[in-house]
UniProtKB/TrEMBL annotation:
SUPFAM superfamilies: ATPase domain of HSP90 chaperone/DNA topoisomerase II/histidine kinase, HAMP domain-like, Homodimeric domain of signal transducing histidine kinase, PYP-like sensor domain (PAS domain). GO terms for biological process: cellular response to phosphate starvation; regulation of DNA-templated transcription. Keywords: ATP-binding, Cell membrane, Kinase, Membrane, Nucleotide-binding, Phosphoprotein, Transferase, Transmembrane, Transmembrane helix, Two-component regulatory system. It is found in: Cell membrane. It comes from the Bacteria. Pfam families: HAMP, HATPase_c, HisKA, PAS. The keyword Transferase applies. GO terms for molecular function: ATP binding; phosphoprotein phosphatase activity; phosphorelay sensor kinase activity. It comes from Paenibacillus prosopidis. InterPro entries: BphY/WalK/GraS-like, HAMP_dom, HATPase_C_sf, HATPase_dom, His_kinase_dom, HisK_dim/P_dom, HisK_dim/P_sf, PAS. It catalyses: ATP + protein L-histidine = ADP + protein N-phospho-L-histidine. This is histidine kinase. GO terms for cellular component: plasma membrane.
Length: 591
């Protein structure tokens, strides 16, 4: 653009320079000619005056020299020009500047010849005597009629003329320079006014190219360039609107991707990772910064995953697999690899969707294990009932004593079955939270006393001493029936797993301002260390035979744990074999 402006300026200046210098040259030439013409005319007039006043003498040549030389010198004072008198035969009679006797015949001088031929003679040439350009003008003076006339000649140095020409040229050159300068400035301004809007438009276009969509052209004139500016502005407007829309879409997409529960990885058809959301970073244990832009094989990924991606890229079809990952933590991931065909036909890569199914699978496993356990637990008493009933039917019914003991067993087993089913129903009710808790303030002291009283007959049957140590004035917000279930269950376990003559005690104390701690201890058989972490699991029993003989279902502690958790409390156990166990519950005072 700049060079365009420079070019335009230079062309305009060159044209102005050409015309001005041509005019200058022409002027100089005309001036010189006019000047010389005027000078010559002047000289002719002077000579005519001289000839009119002149007294021509005749006589001996040597006597004439002085007269004419003096005359010439006198006249030179008035005219300022060299004056020469020439006789009609060419002999110089007198000269204001030179000795006439020394001068040669002047008949062959151009001005003299011309004067004799046409009346006035002019010549410009270098003087023989003085080395300078001279202008010579001569006229004939008729002295005796019909005789060849004498000649008067004036000569002036052209130095003066040249000097004034030089002065004029100087003035001309200075003028031209000034003109040049003015012309250059004007041309530059004209070029500027033409190119400046274009430069501005170019600048704006470049900014738009560099994604600065706020750039606008300042349109001042409604000419063609102004219209171009308007068009660029309209383009920038629409680009800005579109870019904002794209930006918004991008942000939305990003927030959707970042907040998805599933991991998403996009891989282009060359195997380069293009996109990776936050969940994928968590699940795979790599940051998007590390992986995006790199080939999937460069990421040190599980072999099966790399295989799967490779296959997906090759076969371009939907693949589904479940793979266990051990890094960054153990997880079972369901992987869905979906081919991407953005415009319906051309394959552009694959989308990998990662879903952590560890929890789902764990739950499924637990459910099926539970069903198996329940079936097994139910089968045992039913088998017993069926077996004894068969034996009775087979004839044992006739032996009254045997029949009675068998019937007792059948009764006990069905009772156990009843309890078992009751516990299972209870547990499933609690787990599914079908029955909401109804919280109310419970006065701890009287509540525990009542619960202990309910267990007294069972304890005394085994000759077990039941004791309490309860801090006064404690209240807790709880579902009273559920809380009773918790305490009775633990007391009942304590009594069950303590040999005759042992002790079971309850202690309640406040912990800080907002919690109470209930500890139920016994002096019973204790629980082996290895079983401690598992006793809260459903159907888990340390000693199956013993538990069964004591009427346990193996569900009691699981129910307790669930109920404690529903109260936002915690339960823990400490135990040593043969010494006893302590179950500690901590509950928040307020729910
Ligand atoms: P159960 O109906 O068999 O008692 P629980 O869920 O109540 O089932 O208890 C699970 C197992 O924990 C019991 O089988 C028993 O082996 C052990 N256990 C529970 N309480 C005590 C305790 N106070 N002393 C010793 N062992 C206990």
């Amino acid at each position: 653009m700049n060079s365009f402006r420079t070019r335009l300026t230079l062309i305009m200046i060159a044209m102005i320079a050409l015309s001005v210098s041509t005019a200058g040259l022409f002027m100089a030439k005309t001036f010189k000619e006019n000047h010389i013409d005027a000078l010559e005319d002047n000289m002719v007039r002077e000579m005519q005056i001289i000839s009119a006043r002149m007294e021509w003498k005749a006589g001996e040549l040597s006597s004439l020299y002085d007269h004419y030389t003096n005359e010439a010198k006198e006249l030179k004072r008035y005219t300022g020009a060299r004056v020469t008198f020439i006789r009609n035969d060419g002999v110089v009679l007198g000269d204001s500047d030179w000795d006439p006797s020394q001068m040669d015949n002047h008949l062959d001088r151009a001005e003299v010849k011309e004067a004799l031929e046409i009346g006035t003679g002019r010549a410009i040439r270098e003087s023989d005597t003085a080395n300078q350009n001279m202008i010579y003008v001569a006229i004939p003076v008729e002295i005796i009629p019909d005789q060849t006339p004498n000649i008067i000649r004036l000569a002036m140095s052209l130095n003066e003329v040249d000097q004034s020409i030089r002065n004029l040229t100087m003035v001309l050159v200075l003028g031209l320079l000034a003109l040049f300068l003015v012309a250059a400035i004007i041309s530059y301004r004209i070029a500027l006014s033409m190119t400046l809007p274009l430069e501005q438009i170019t600048k704006v276009a470049k900014r738009i190219k560099n994604m600065d969509y706020r750039a606008r052209v300042k349109v001042t004139k409604q000419d063609e360039i102004g219209e171009l500016g308007n068009a660029i502005n309209a383009m920038a407007d629409s680009l800005q609107v579109q870019m904002t829309r794209i930006q918004q879409n991008e942000n939305q997409l990003e927030s959707v991707l970042d907040n998805m529960i599933n991991g998403i990885v996009m891989i282009d058809k060359n195997g380069k990772i293009v996109l990776m959301n936050r969940r994928a970073e968590e699940v795979l244990g790599f940051s998007a910064r590390e992986l995006v832009g790199r080939h999937f094989a460069e990421a040190k990924q599980q072999y099966e995953l790399s295989q799967m991606i490779q296959e997906g890229l090759k076969n371009k079809e939907h693949l589904r697999e479940e793979i266990t990952f051990y890094f960054p933590e153990e997880r079972l991931l369901e992987l869905n690899l979906v081919p991407i065909h953005p415009d319906g036909n051309e394959f552009s890569g694959v989308l990998l969707v990662l879903q952590d199914v560890s929890a789902i699978r764990r739950l499924e496993r637990m459910r099926s294990e539970f069903v198996a356990n329940v079936s097994h637990e139910l089968k045992t008493p039913i088998t017993a009932v069926k077996g004894f009933a068969e034996t009775l039917l087979g004839g044992a019914v006739n032996d009254e004593e045997t029949a009675r003991s068998f019937l007792q067993i059948i009764y006990d087993e069905s009772d156990r079955l009843n309890r078992l089913i009751g516990d299972i129903l209870e547990l499933s009710k609690i787990e599914s939270r079908r029955v909401p808790l109804s919280f109310s303030p419970v006065e701890v002291d009287s509540f525990i006393s009542k619960s202990v009283k309910l267990m007294e007959s069972e304890a005394s049957r085994k000759n077990i001493e039941l004791s309490m140590n309860i801090e006064q004035g404690l209240y807790v917000e709880a579902d009273e029936d559920r809380l009773r279930q918790i305490v009775m269950n633990l007391l009942s376990n304590g009594i069950n797993y303590t040999p005759d003559g042992g002790r079971v005690s309850v202690k309640v104390e406040g912990v800080g301002d907002d919690h109470i701690r209930i500890s139920i201890s016994d002096s019973g058989i204790g629980i082996p260390k290895k079983d401690l972490p598992r006793i809260f699991e459903r159907f888990y029993r340390v000693d199956k035979a013993r538990s069964r003989s004591s009427g346990g279902t193996g569900l009691g502690l699981s129910i307790v744990k669930h109920l404690v958790e529903l109260h936002k409390g915690t339960i823990s156990v400490t135990s040593s074999l043969g010494v006893g166990s302590t179950f500690i519950i901590e509950l928040p005072v307020l729910q």
